[in-house]
Write a structure and sequence with these properties.
about 550 residues; alpha+beta; 5-stranded antiparallel beta sheet; 17 helices; 13 strands; about 50% helix; about 15% strand; flat
Length: about 550
């Protein structure tokens, strides 16, 4: 695409997003002032808004922290690769191979700043109901992760609702821009600022989209599946760079697929409650101020309008009165108490709406002492179900694509291990999730196996042949997989078969040795017994020769 076509595309995609900017700006001010960048705002300043009660901000921080710990805990193996076909999983060395891949991806995620980026992503997803993540290559850490903030990007989806185009606006200084793209690529206006204004800001537009026309036989940057274009927004003489990606470097999802591309979610639902808290908190403050310093009525002949602000004095003609009296003798304490109760009620609703009660109210890794394991697991499953469609979109649209992109970067850099020789040419890997939130649901299968065994074991004791119906090896494989047991702990089917064959051979050898020992013992016992005229005598005679005296020992 040439620059003119790109600008038309950018204008169209951003026009579809601009309908939400006003709402996002309000959400940012009330819930997340540290995130969001909207037209007319300074990049490095924190949005300031006078709030009487920041309950929404506190709840959002708690919910986002809980969501990060529940979905992608940094100190926990929250994802796991395995071969798609069960037969491939049981091959010797296959488990160790995928464990090594997982370990290298985890190290890359930690080194590249993934956990900071995904925490910011979760904040924006809860607040703005949609969020964007970016994965780029890095010479230092192989991959680097960031969360472009709301208001700086716009997206377009294809007919399958997958990400087809991303428009991302970034700010460079003049020096940074020249160092990144080269002096010959930047505009003439930018080159002129190099000496006079080297640190002036320059807005740059990055466009990533599915490449429409490419030669799949070629593997250069201009024939990769996803095209990348950079240009200066204000003074563009041409493209700063044109390149490409093997995978879409941006990951996008919405909390709930509604209201067009950018969806809806907890932030939209909690907005009215946060506004109500602001109103009630203001009234409470006014009531407290008037209780502490009430307006007064004083003897006099003033005819001015009655003043009700704190500390005001109203001159009013009163018969037989020469003293100051409060304008509101009953005070405001009772009303303030009712307002405070309403504020607490609304705060509880915000906690529920922003999912803080799910993620943080009940720890996901610790069962209360007074709660049975069955009840605890049941509550955890119900809590996971309340996440609604968010989890079903979060894992495939974000986590799977992050892992796929990271895998591709490491593979192309030669940082992944070679597959064992036992693995076939067409074997491929799947990724599953073992985070606390995912285990709420995945452990259901392990509990079903446990319940089955509780019923089956008494039947096996009554009739041992019933055990033939149970594949114990497969039970161990299924339970270990659901509980995320390292592959190095569980032997492959090949290793188990070889171990059992060796055990059978040893048992056969032991049985043969025992039989030989029994025969020799019988021979020794027969040595002190007369065998003349018996079959034993004939046998011994044939093996030991004729014996004098008709006995084995003569």
């Amino acid at each position: 695409m040439d620059l003119a076509d790109l600008k038309k595309l950018v204008a169209h995609v951003e026009s579809m997003r601009n309908r939400r900017l006003k709402e996002w700006r309000e959400l940012s001010a009330l819930f997340l002032p540290s995130r969001g960048m909207f037209p007319g705002e300074e990049k490095d300043s924190v949005r300031k808004r006078r709030l009487f009660n920041n309950a929404g901000q506190r709840t959002l921080s708690k919910a986002a922290a809980g969501m990060t710990a529940a979905m992608t805990p940094a100190d926990y193996a929250w994802f796991k690769h395995q071969f798609a076909l069960p037969g491939d999983r049981e091959l010797t060395g296959a488990g160790q191979f995928v464990d090594e891949i997982d370990e290298r991806i985890r190290k890359t995620l930690a080194a590249g700043g993934f956990y900071d980026a995904i925490h910011a992503f979760n904040k924006e997803l809860l607040c703005f109901c949609c969020a964007l993540l970016y994965v780029e290559t890095s010479n230092r850490t192989a991959a680097r992760y960031s969360c472009p903030t709301c208001g700086t990007w716009a997206v377009a989806l294809d007919s399958d609702r997958t990400l087809a185009c991303v428009i991302h606006r970034l700010t460079f200084t003049v020096v940074e821009l020249i160092e990144h793209f080269g002096s010959e690529k930047v505009s003439e206006a930018t080159r002129k600022k190099k000496d006079s204004e080297p640190y002036a800001s320059v807005e740059v537009v990055h466009v990533v989209m599915k490449r429409r026309d490419r030669d799949e036989a070629k593997h250069d940057n201009k024939n990769l599946p996803f095209a990348s274009y950079w240009y200066e927004d204000a003074n563009s003489d041409g493209l700063l760079a044109e390149s490409g990606y093997h995978e879409m470097p941006y990951m996008f999802t919405v909390w709930e697929d509604a209201r067009g591309i950018y969806g809806t979610g907890p932030g939209d639902l909690a907005l009215s409650d946060q506004k109500a808290i602001e109103s009630y908190e203001l009234r409470k403050c006014v009531g407290l101020e008037k209780t502490i310093d009430p307006p007064w009525i004083a003897p006099g002949t003033g005819k001015d309008r009655l003043r009700t602000d704190a500390g005001a004095i109203n001159s009013v003609s009163m018969a037989n009165s020469q003293q100051f009296i409060p304008l509101f003798p009953g005070g405001f304490i009772q009303g303030i108490q009712h307002v405070q109760q309403e504020i607490q009620s609304i705060s509880g609703r915000i906690d529920e709406t922003l999912m803080a009660t799910i993620f943080a109210a009940m720890p996901l890794d610790q069962r209360p002492k007074d709660m049975s394991a069955t009840e605890y697991l049941d509550r955890r499953r119900k809590a996971a179900q309340l996440m609604g469609p968010a989890i079903s979109a979060y894992e495939p649209n974000v986590l799977s694509r992050v892992i796929e992109r990271t895998y591709g970067i490491l593979d192309r850099a030669g940082f992944l291990p070679l597959a064992p020789e036992s693995v076939g040419e067409f074997a491929y890997l799947d990724v599953s999730y073992e985070s606390p939130m995912s285990q709420m649901l995945s452990q259901t299968g392990a509990e079903a196996i446990q319940a089955f065994l509780q019923v089956a074991l008494p039947l096996v004791q009554a009739d041992p042949q019933a055990l033939d119906k149970v594949d114990v090896d497969q039970i161990i494989d299924e339970v270990s997989r659901r509980f995320n047991v390292p592959a190095s702990v569980i032997r492959s089917d090949e290793q188990v078969a070889a171990l059992r064959e060796e055990r059978t051979r040893q048992q056969a050898a032991q049985e043969q040795a025992s039989q030989e020992q029994a025969v020799m013992k019988q021979i020794a016992e027969l040595g002190n017994t007369s065998t003349q005229g018996t079959i034993a005598g004939e046998v011994l005679g044939s093996t030991q020769g004729a014996q004098t005296g008709g006995t084995a020992n003569g």
